[in-house]
Structures are given as structure tokens and as C-alpha cells.
Amino acid sequence: MGFFDGIFKKIPFVSRFSKKKAPVNNVELQYNKAMNLMDNGDSEESVKILEQVSDIGIMDTQYKSYGDDALLALAEFYEKGVYRNAKTNVDMNKSTKYYEKYVNQNRDGDVIYKLAKMMLEIQNFSKAIKYFEIAATDYGIKAAYMSLGSIYESGLNRIDEYGNKSDFVVPADLEKAMQWYKKLADAGDAKAKASYERVLYASTHEDSLEFEEKDKLYTEISQRRKEKGKEPRYKVIEASRLQYQYSYVHNQVEGYIHKLPKDWVKTINESTGEEYYAPSLTYKDFAIYVYYDSIPKDSKKTLENYLRYCNDAFDEDLQLKAYITEYADGICTTYYHKDMEKGIVSFAFYQGRRLACMRFVCATMEIIEQYEEIIFEVANSFAFIDPTLVSEESANRRDMQYYNEAIYCYYLEDYEGAMKAAKQALKFGSIKASYLLVELYYDEDSPYRDLEKTISYAKQLFEATKDPELAFLIGNVYDQQMKDYMKALNWYENAERLGHKRVAFYLGRIYYYGLLRTKRDGRKALEYFKKARANGIPEAEGYIKDLEELKGEDLQTAVEKWERAVQAGSESAAIKIAMMKQQQIFYIATPYEIEKAYLEALGLGSARAGYELGRIYQLQEKQENYKGEIKSIKYFEKAFNANFDDWDKENLFKVINYKVEKGLDNEEAIKLYIENASMGYVPAIEKLFELVPFTTQQIWSLYDALIELAETGDETAIVAMNKLEMHYVDLIIREPGKGQKIVENKFFRLCVPKECSATINDEGGTIKLADSVVEFAVAEMPVNATAEQDYLKIYKLIVSEYLPDENAEVIIANSRMIGSAIRSSKDNIHTYSILLISSKNQYIFKLSSKDKREMMQFKDVLNSIAKSLVETGEIYKATGENRKNIGLAFLLKANENGFLSIGKDA
User: Are strands 748-753 and 740-744 parallel, antiparallel or unpaired?
Assistant: First the structure.
């Protein structure tokens, strides 16, 4: 029947831990660069890069994931007008273009449905209907069925910027509306069934109450209330101030009537499944929700709690007041809903055991006043009347009264009240109550949790409804809870035969893990996983990859071969199986089985096994109530002693400290801390301060290693370098070596080859190297980067800009002197340019040569000269505009949010 979506959402996908990332490729670098630019507010350059990445992803399947992510980022950027720190004007046409590219590459029902809604919003009705139909028929998305029904029930008009409607572009077609509602109703959806019955009645009957009769009805209700002494207390909108025309909504099934602005339509909130009224199907700033309920005698609902329940506002501080109109008694409140971030005006009315709630949802508190007329005209017109149409879904039926009471109690986590009301509803013949009973017996938070009863009720309900969701639920209970895999298989196959989309993934798992007596079957597993992928289940992708990596080898045969190798003493096979168990590849392994596999691999000499066991025990030891032996460090030591070389820097530091505490000599400790520090780990550097008071060759080697690391884009290396420089100050004061001389001005000094001729002034100078010339200059720093975080920001931008460029490289002189170098050729002149940025100034070097080989020969010489730069501390201030517009001024630009962006072109 598919009613209780909540119960099925509680069934999680069984997925593995993520695998180790592959080495970074250029496409990933470009994607990361785009994200970095977005972080720093540079949307223009980022969009260009993301479009290139998306094109590559479409053309080359190995980069598809990057292309998909790029398309989704671009689509969201133009849909919302913001992505990370970048901003732009909302452009729904551009956004839909990117979403269309994405859905052409991916079977993703949720995105297709989202695209359909956006097409509706930009009034591309033909495409909207096309994508709604795909979302409904191919992916079973309920809201898509309801949207199609609503489109054909009301028709579609174009609306201009002033709110004027055109003639119908898609005329109302009640037959088509009924077709779409019925498809969903036949699957057991109550709202679809009610909508189908409403349209069916409308197609064969005229409203039983004409306009004049409605006016007479209101007069009679008002007169009766006056005779009873009811004193109205409500807000009146003077007739002379009314700007809208109104029609009437007459709910003949439940028995109530109220006004509604003329030509407004009923649509659906796809996130909650609730129907509401709005000026058009895509209007978002204002919505009217109407709820009705009829309660049993022993109901726990009060009028206030009913209003809070309909508004999901039990945690809100509401100022409630009586609201008595000419036609109904009630209460009202105006408040800001914190979770929804909406302004809300809500009314609740009662008559005997009948309740109703009207909720007017505004995009902001400020626009409530704009819609004041509609709010009070509609609320003031609400009246309870006698029902004139019979329906199985009517809230006035005894079974529905108790069922709705059960749902209310369940919402409040009153499980006893929910169970009592659900059983009462079941006595009156409610099929929905059967679903709720299944949920109460399945819910882990319910005191009535009982898997045997879950299965028993679900089976009975399945026999009556043939609901594929129930078959899937039963299969999942047998699979995940009871480990009865043959029964799970039978029920999963039932669900698949009935068209369940998600179940193919679980059928694949059964064969992938060999949960049947027939053991693993890679061929069947692959078949089901591919079907799951086609059904829009992305979790299947990793399993498909595992199976395809076998390159046709039989899965069970491969596993048995690995296990025999372990029995024969193979360390490599043992660690392979242990890691597969940990990642749940081909094995469903418990924590104990994973630990046992690693212990076996350790016994066969695997260094990695010791490291992985250390990490396993480390996680256990971090648990709040852990009181056992501290074992992690001992296994880290085993890995270290076995020459394990793939450490994370935190645990390497811990094991070095452990060995030092056990009496490691200083020389060995220094060597180990340097190894750890070269990973960019500051705590290891601080340990070196205690052991190595002065700069040694080891410290120089460490510093050089950190520079190399920083040039790959690792910002922790910059932080570590700065820590070293603060303690070993001579690291950044480069003295001239043999064959070098010093040239200097008031801002900086350089070490240059003795044989070169150099001229220098306070603005810069030239260096002659054979037939090549180096020009250099100091320039003003256009931004303040004295704080470490600001300087790291510049570093990250330089890395994101130049690291992916084959003709460029990142240059690190010291932790506060970083930049980039780039090669170029134009008109037979070959250049190599360096930009260095400190926290005070910027420095520019340009090597020019007519001979490319000579330029390449002196490239390293220029690098050496640039890296030898030592500042005097003076801050350069340009005196003329021409001196302000060089170097970094071309490369750095502050956007409207104050974020930095780096580009290579002036």
C-alpha cells in the first residue's frame, strides 16, 4: 500500500567504509581549484573551470564523478544564487540547463523531479510535464503523480511579471487528472485516492450548493449562532478595502466551507506530501493549508494541541487568543516558525468533536501584512456544515477517527495511546491502522517492538494489498534482523516482481556476500547491482566496481583461492582479506572477525596489520565508558618495529613518544621526530626544539622537505615551516654562497651569481645572465595578510590557481614568502616569470630570452635568486598609479565580498 514512508526510511542502505583515495589527477585538481575559487568568492573563473570539468566528465567516463559534481554545483549556484562564498544572480534557465545535462548522464529520480518543478517555475510546461512523467513512471515518485494530477485538474497558464494570467497553455483535462491520481491511488496512497474521488465527482456532478445557496447557508449559520448568544471576536476587513475576488471551497466529504481567492490552485508540498492552495502551482511566497479532523469520544486532542500539531509547533512559544467569527468558534496565533524560517498565521476551529485548522504560511513575517486581506477573509469564512458525499477516506468515519488519533499519539511518542487507538481503528476495519501496527512493532524506539509480530501483521497486510513495500520490509527483517536469508530472498523477489526499485540492491548483496547455501555468485550479484544502478541507487556503484575488478574470475573461486593462500602462510593474502573484511568487500564481517583477521595477518608478518589493529583499539579506547587495557600503542609499536611506512602523522607522533619514554636515545629520537615533522606536524617540531637547540644539517634537510611538501599544496607544511623559522631564525637569512654576491636596496636583498652584472634601485633593477635579462621589482601589497589565516588564504589560492597548470609551478622561499612561476612564449621571446608574496610586499622577477634553451638553463638560477630574497622590514608604498598596477595588483582582485581571487592574466 505504500502509506508509511517513515517505516521504510528506517531501513538503511548497508554500505561499506570508503576506500583509500586514488592519487590526485589533473581533473580533480581543476575541480578542487574551482571549489577553492568558490570559497573565495570568485564565481566567474570557477564557473569556467566547472564547465570544462563537466565536459570532460561527459566525454570520458573515468572522470564522470567529477563531471557530475561540477554539473550539480553549477546548477545549485544558479538556482540559489549562492554556492559556498560565491554569489550571482539567480538564473533558473541556466540552472535547468545544467540539471538537464546531469539527468541525461544519470538516472536520478529525485533530480529529475526537481528539474520538473523548476521547468514548471520557468513556465516551460512541455518539459515540466515530460520530466514529471519520467519521475512518476520510471522512479515511482509520488509527488510527481500528484503534480501531474494537479496540472491536469487545474490547467496551466503563463503568468507575466505583473501577475496577469494568459489563456490556458495546458487546458484542464479531468480525464488525464484522474488517470494520474488513480495510478497512485491504486498503489494505496490515501491523498491520491481522495484527489481521484474529488475529480471523479467534479467530472460527473455540479456542486450541490450554488453561490446563492452558499450565501443563504452562511446567513442561517450566523443566525443560529446569534440565537445562542455567540459574541463574535474577530478581525473584519471592510468591504470597501477588498481587492480580490473570491470563490468558495466546499468540501462535501468532510463537511466544511470557506472562501478562496478566485483562480487559485491546489498543489502539493513535495517535502511533506501536504496539499495547499496558492496563486499558481509554482508560487512560493504564500500558501494556505487546511486541515480537518473528527475525534473519538476518548480523544486526547485539545484545540490548542491540535493547532500545534497541524503547525508542527509544540516547541514554539505561541501567543494564543480566542477567535470567534460569525460562523465558527476557535483560537488563533501569529508567530515565526524557527525551523521553517517562515511567518505563520494559524487558526483552529471546533464544533462538537469536529476540528479544523487553517495555516497561512508566508515567506517572511514582513509579508503577512501584504496578505492580510486574504488571511482574514478566508479564515472568517470558515464554517462547519453537514457532509453531502460519502467517502472511505472521510475523517468522520469511526475507523478514521481512531486511526487519526493513533497517528497523533504516535507523533507525540505516546506509544500506549497509539497502540490503543490503532487497535480500535482496526476493529472498525481500517487498513491504514494495520500499517501503523506494523510500524509500532518494528520501531526500535517503541516499547512494543516485536519482529515476529511485525512479520505477522505485514504478511497479512501484504496478502490484502500486494504492496511491494511490505514485501521489501518483510525481506529486510529476515535479512538484516533474523539472518534467514532464504526467506529474505523469497520476499525480496516478491518485491522485485511487483516493481520495487530499491530491492535489486539487496538482492545483489545476497549473492555478493554468499548468504545462501550456494555461496557467492558474482554473475547474479553484478546483474542485480547493475539493475539497482539503473533504478537510481548510487550505492550499487562500489559493488559493481569490486566485481568488475575480478576481470571475469568467478567470485567464489577467487575468495577460496585467497583463503587457501592464507592457510599456506601468505602474509599478502592475509592482509588483503583482513582489509576486505574491514571494508565489507565480499565479506560481512563482525568487529570480532575483523580483529581476528588482522591478528592472523600480523602473525604472518604484516606490518600494516599492526597499524590497523592499533587504529581499531584506539577507537575502542576513545569510547566514554571504556575501562579495558590500552592496547593501541602497543600495536602501533609493532607496526613501527616492522617498518610500516604509511603512517598518519598523529599516530606516528604517538608511537615515537612511546618509544622515547621507553628510553630511545636522543640521536634516534631526533631522526624519528624529523621524519614525523616532515609530514607537516607541528607537535613533532616542538619536540625537536628540546632536542636540537641550534640549526643543524638535519634541520636544514627538514626545512627543505617541508618546502617540497608545501609546493604540493599542503598548507600544514606552511604552518610547520613558520614554526621552524621562529625557532631557527637563520633558516630564512640566506648568506651568499661560494660564487655569489649580494645586491640590495632599502626593501630587500638578493644573492646573485658573481659573474652577472646587476643594477638595482629602490624600485627594482636588472640582472644580466649571458644573453638573457632578469628584470625584478618590488610592488605594493594590495591586501593585509599579516594574520596567519589571511596569509594561508593567499597560499591556497596560489596553489589552486597554479598547481594544475602544466606551465606553472608553486614557489616557496619561506613560510611568509610564497608565490608562483610560469613559463610563456610570445613573438620568439621566451619568458619565465616569478611572483613572490610576503605579508608586507610583493616581488616580481621576469627572465627573458630569445633562446628557449638558454631560458630553461637559467630558470633554476632565477629560482635560486628569488628564493634568496630577504626583506629589510620596510613596507613599499607606490607613489604613482603606474607603480600600483604591477604584479599582484593584476593578480589579486577583491570582489564585493572582500574575498581574494588569483588569475594569471592581467
Answer: antiparallel
